[in-house]
Amino acid sequence: MSDSIPILLSTLNARYMHTAFGLRYLQANLGELKEQSKILEFTIQELPINIVEQLLAQQPKIIGFSVYIWNVSETHKVIAMLKQIAPDVIIILGGPEVGHNPDVPAVTDLADYVISGPGEVSLPELCQQILAGSKPEQKFIEGKVIPLDQLKLPYNLYTDDDIRNRLIYVEASRGCPFECEFCLSALDKTVTAFPLDSFFEEMDKLLQRGVRNFKFIDRTFNLKISTSVAILEFFLERMTDDLYLHFEVVPDNLPDKLKDVLQRFPKNRLQFEIGVQTFDSEIQKLISRKQNNDKTKANIIWLRENTGAHLHTDLIFGLPTDTLENFGHSFDQLIALKPHEIQMGILKRLRGAPLNRHNDNYQLRYNPEPPYNILTTRDISFNEMQRVNRFARYWDMIGNSGRFTNTLALILAEQPFENFMQLSDALHQLAGSSWKIALKRLFELIYTILTEQVFLSEEAVKQALALDYSRAKLKGFPAYELDTPVQKQKKQGVANKRQLSHQ
User: Fold this and answer.
1) Burial class (CB in 10 A: 0-12, 13-18, 19+), 55
2) Could you read off the pLDDT of 134-154 as tens digits, one per residue?
3) Fewest CB within a 10 Å sphere: which of 102, 117, 316, 457?
4) What is the Cα–Cα distance from 123 to 72, expressed in whole angstroms?
5) Is the pLDDT of residue 306 over 70?
6) Do 135 and 264 lie in a common domain?
7) What is the Cα–Cα distance from 376 to 362, expressed in whole angstroms?
8) Quick check: 271 pLDDT over 70?
9) To the nearest whole number, what is the mean pLDDT of the chain?
10) Parallel, antiparallel, or unpaired: how do β-strands 341-346 and 270-277 relate?
11) pLDDT digit string (tens) for 38-91?
């Protein structure tokens, strides 16, 4: 049996490659309790009983869990089992899924304490009280906010294994000044930045340890341009062939100072996550989203034409008053800007998000189970919602994968959304699934649909698919190529060679 660890900090990540950045902040700021703590990370794919065994092997007195929309169901199972086996272990919950009392999930009923908001100050205070035998009576505790320059930075808590195998998250600021109602950042009062000198010192240490992929989680990286430029200049001075930076940017804020430094980055060293969400100005007004659509479009075009950055853009389906046809207009406008990726998001109900005030007026009906995806609205039927869910998955396979560059140009000509929806509906009918379609089979299905249902030229479709098939480096030939005269001749030649080799 291992030595007892009084305080465990744990969570269930969506995948092994993800790291629990929040847990590292909590441990870094535990003060004198830090040496009595340990981080244990799991994934949602692991069996709850195995997770419980590993947690209890440390003989903890306190276990703190970070709870998110993607892990709340699995975390509930783990805690329910813990309370059966070791009811004396104190369970503390934190994270966005549990931080908006009374709008909280059932897992909070099993917990001893729930901290809402930041926990860097409140968690060590609570743990001190529990370990001293003076447990507070109040179950729900409001996390204390302190200036960021008083926080201990957590970057030294990334292990060598993390650096080799996992995403490394960093942040230069916290908060968001915007009030988009579908986002929990709408609850933030302001944006505050970490002191740049200490931040750069930590980034330099990570670079020296071999980190080459930095994922910034700042909600508005390009809000304060002088800070954005300073961070970009820092990495430019340390540029290597394998350095890669990910930022979430405000789409309509791209002044010349920022453009100048972006143009100096080599190709494929930057990725920008650009939340467009909708181009409908009336919807934007309804959900308190301030976005200059003309500037947004001009900036995406400029980034595409003048930098080597990878542009990952986002749209959301299911916003109040949106319709299938209207969403298609936003999609078509975004396609025309030629981003590298379009993430088709389905609206989800986030606990505490201001958008919930619209639920009754616009009949927003959500899945009662996580991830609380929207099922119907006043203006969108369940059938239409399902069609767009399938569209999103097929779009990932065909549009975002980069495997169908040539064929996609044929599919999207003139009416992108309508055309791809026709392809999506037909794929679902023929394949019966939008998951795990073998790539070769996908080529064959696309050929059948484009030639037999969309009635595109067989020659044009084959030429486009042939170019994409070659780039995919698939073995053999797709079914639609096997009955052509050329392929019959090739097959006969192979058969003749085999016959001669056996003589």
Assistant:
1) buried
2) 999 999 999 999 999 999 999
3) 102
4) 20
5) yes
6) no
7) 10
8) yes
9) 94
10) unpaired
11) 999 999 999 999 999 999 999 999 999 999 999 999 999 999 999 999 999 999
DSSP letters, 370-382, are: TT-BEEE-SSS-H
The two structure tokens encoding residue 113: 């304490």
Specify the number of domains making up the chain. 2
**DSSP characters for 262-313?**
HTTSPTTSEEEEEEEE---HHHHHHTT----HHHHHHHHHHHHHH---EEEE
Q: Would residue 244 be called left, alpha or beta, if left means φ above 0 and alpha means ψ between -120 and 50 degrees? A: beta
Report the C-alpha gap between 499 and 381 in whole angstroms. Answer: 60
How open is the CA angle 78-125-128, to the nearest 5 degrees? Answer: 80
pLDDT higher than threshold 80 for residue 483: no
**Claim to verify: residue 247 and residue 348 sit in the same structural domain:** yes
Cα–Cα distance list, 166 to 10, 18, 20, 158 (Å): 17, 6, 10, 10
The per-residue pLDDT for 491 is 45
Domain-located, residue 324: yes
Domain that holds residue 230: 167-380
**62 with 202, same domain?**
no
286's tokens = 């309804």
For range 250-256, the mean pLDDT: 94
Contact 434, 394 (CB under 8 A): yes
429 part of a folded domain? no
The torsion angles phi and psi of 315, rounded to 5 degrees, stand at -125, 150
Side chain identity, residue 150: Q
- Hey, which residues does 42 pair with through a beta bridge? 12
- From the list 272, 233, 230, the residue with the least C-alpha distance to 253 is 272
- SS3 breakdown of the chain: % helix, strand, coil, rounded to 5? 45, 15, 40
